[in-house]
Design brief:
It contains 27 helices and 21 strands. By secondary structure, it is α/β, with parallel strands linked by helices. Strands 3-4-2-5-6-1-7 form a 7-stranded parallel sheet, sandwiched between helices. Strands 8-13-12-9-11-10 form a 6-stranded parallel sheet, with helices on both faces.
């Protein structure tokens, strides 16, 4: 009963969700496990509970810095010691963290995949008592998936250093091909186990609308569906425009995207979670790791690139089990544009090479140098300097990431750091002479252990509250400490980063794997076709379409998506058919009549049933539309 006790003590739950206990027991039995759990299915508990049951530390590999930080903070709030190492941390910060992981009483070490094969990490690895490797967002290891990230391929090499340590791979969405590829790339043992939760969401109603005015339809949806909502937009500009539209119509809202500062993103996210605002208009940068059960509606204001993304984002609605709605708004031009994306997202080799060379020149990196270094990279500034289209540059960078040339982090965040550079005696003497800075100095010493030995991540807002001052006063005082030579202080960093995974290639040695590149392009086109088919579908149950795509077919229709409801409306009893049939003929025989005039007397009957009988009468040539668009009994 140990795992039930852990669940109750740290999470307060009396029982596990479906499959969680089976996954945990398989991990505790030392098996390699692939777990497919939908968004909101409780993936983190599947590795956190067994890690607490086992001796040693759990190594968690995740590509999302913001999510790593959130999970570490959540664990700390539960009294569980956790650490994280990610791109952008200094050598000293990383070394201190790894020392703590190796010799401290920590249970979790979160690591970004590009850190796995650094010499520093490998030096400390033998000293860590690693009991479990948890691979989050495991679909990133497959180049045949929708979000391939080459650094994930290093995990298999890591296993050679940790023989006998089981691996738990977790993802919310992966097709059968991608599932097989995950198990192969992670070098799963033959007695591996796979668990796949049903993709059925019986309380979530999917629908798609081809509308002339998305704005009007969005307002109609939010007026009809009460409660918290998310509106996913394709561009950052759209998020702001939609938030303004909703505010003008008295709907409490805000916008969110990766271009905002970390502080702004946190504030907006917290306001939405705490119901200070009702609707968040956002890009897909929003939502990862957020567990808000009462979301009533998720609206996609544009067509996503693939069903994997759509399913994850739509799945943020209705996690409390109550009825919720996932609405997709589209128009035919969007679908045409999506079908043309293949040529844009997969530039020619010559274009990719030119952009690579331009980036290296922009960052002033000599040939044969740069591996392991991280650089500030302003995408817009680069585009202007070298006259490269930003969209083409973005996708060329994506290809170069997939070729393990570098990693580009658009939503990079590095907290402020501070270390005292003076001795304690010198500091004591300084405090006596500068009473105005004494409160801040004492706050730093009390809040951050080891701040004399290693740079500590400091939070200026926390210091302001602790000292009962404003953040501006704290920033000013920190700069004074720098000017006096007492501290080395690095303010927080929000600029996008480019991390080189290999030295700059010489011009004549530039190459990409064209065979794999071509296959990825073909698979992208297949995903677009599936997304387009889902969007345009008017007959098949949408839940069945999604489940079938992920190779987890459902036995029955959901009954609540737009297609199911429309199909139900088309079923007409003989009695209703005869009543509608007689009514139409009676009215039309008296005088020409508009459709509107015809529908009014029988308003209780569904329009779809009316249209079905009208179609029948037209096919039988018993009624006709005249030149004025009215129904008549003969032309």
């Amino acid at each position: 009963m140990a795992i039930q006790h852990i669940l109750k003590e740290y999470w307060g739950y009396d029982s596990f969700r479906p499959l969680q206990e089976d996954i945990i027991n398989a991990v505790l039995d030392g098996k390699d496990v692939l777990a497919l759990l939908p968004t909101g299915g409780g993936k983190s508990i599947c590795f956190q509970v067994p890690a607490l049951e086992k001796e040693g530390i759990c190594l968690v590999i995740s590509p999302l810095i913001a999510l790593m930080k959130d999970q570490v903070e959540n664990l700390k709030r539960k009294g569980i010691l956790a650490l994280s190492v990610y791109s952008g941390m200094s050598f000293i910060e990383t070394k201190k963290t790894l020392q703590n992981a190796a010799h401290g009483n920590y249970k979790f070490l979160y690591v970004s995949p590009e850190r796995l094969e650094t010499n520093l990490f490998l030096d400390y690895l033998p000293e860590m008592n690693i009991s479990l490797i948890a691979v989050d967002e495991a679909h990133c290891i497959s180049q045949w998936g929708y979000d391939f990230r080459p650094p994930y391929l290093r995990i298999a090499a890591l296993r050679e250093h940790l023989p006998g340590v089981p691996v738990l791979a977790l993802t919310a969405s992966a097709t059968k091909n991608v599932q097989d590829d995950i198990c192969e790339k992670l070098a799963f043992a033959k007695d591996q186990q796979r668990f796949q939760q049903s993709f059925e969401r019986p309380n979530l109603s999917y629908s798609a609308f081809d509308v002339p005015s998305k704005q009007n339809k969005l307002l109609e949806i939010l007026r009809n569906v009460k409660g918290t909502g998310i509106v996913y937009c394709k561009t950052r500009k759209h998020t702001k425009d939609i938030a303004e539209l909703l505010k003008l119509n008295n709907i409490s809202s805000d916008f969110y995207h990766a271009g905002l500062s970390n502080e702004e993103r946190n504030r907006k996210q917290e306001d939405w979670i705490n119901n200070k605002i009702r609707v968040i208009a956002c890009t897909n940068a929003f939502g990862m790791g957020i567990d808000k059960p009462g979301v009533r509606v998720v609206v996609h204001y544009g067509v996503p690139d693939c069903l994997e993304n759509y399913y994850q984002e739509a799945g943020r609605a209705g996690r409390d089990g109550r009825r919720a709605y996932a609405v997709l708004l589209f128009n035919k031009k969007e679908l045409q544009d999506l079908q043309q994306q293949s040529a844009i997202r997969f530039p020619t080799k010559e274009t990719i090479q030119k952009i690579y060379t331009d980036i290296m020149n922009y960052l002033q990196i000599p040939a044969g140098n740069g591996e392991g270094n991280s650089y500030d990279f302003d995408l817009a500034g680069f585009g202007a300097a070298f006259k490269n289209d930003v969209l083409t540059t973005t996708y060329a960078i994506k290809v170069l990431e997939q070729e393990a040339v570098f990693v580009f982090s658009d939503s990079f965040y590095k907290p402020s750091t501070l270390v005292f550079t003076c001795g304690r005696e010198e500091l004591n003497e300084f405090e006596q002479q500068h009473q105005s800075l004494d409160v801040l100095i004492k706050a730093l010493l009390r809040s951050y252990e080891g701040i004399f030995d290693f740079p500590a991540g400091v939070n200026e807002q926390h210091l302001a509250k602790f000292t009962r001052q404003t953040k501006e006063q704290i920033l000013q005082q920190l700069q004074q400490l720098v000017q006096f030579g007492l501290v080395a202080y690095q303010p927080q960093k929000d600029k996008p980063q480019l991390l080189l995974l290999q030295n700059r290639m010489y011009a004549d040695s530039f190459s990409i794997n064209l065979k794999d590149f071509t296959k990825r392009k073909q698979l992208f086109e297949q995903r677009v076709a599936a997304m387009t088919g889902f969007t345009e579908s008017t007959i098949q149950c949408r839940s069945m379409q999604i489940a079938g795509y992920f190779n987890s077919p459902l036995e029955k229709k959901c009954g609540i998506c737009d297609n199911c409801i429309n199909q139900q409306a088309l079923v007409i009893s003989t009695e209703d058919f005869d009543a509608i049939h007689q009514h139409i003929l009676t009215v039309v025989n008296e005088a020409p009549v508009s459709i509107h005039g015809l529908l009014q007397p029988l308003s209780k009957i569904k329009k779809q049933q009316y249209w079905k009988v009208l179609d029948y009468l037209q096919e039988e040539k018993k009624i006709f539309f005249n030149k004025e668009g009215k129904l008549v009994n003969k032309l």
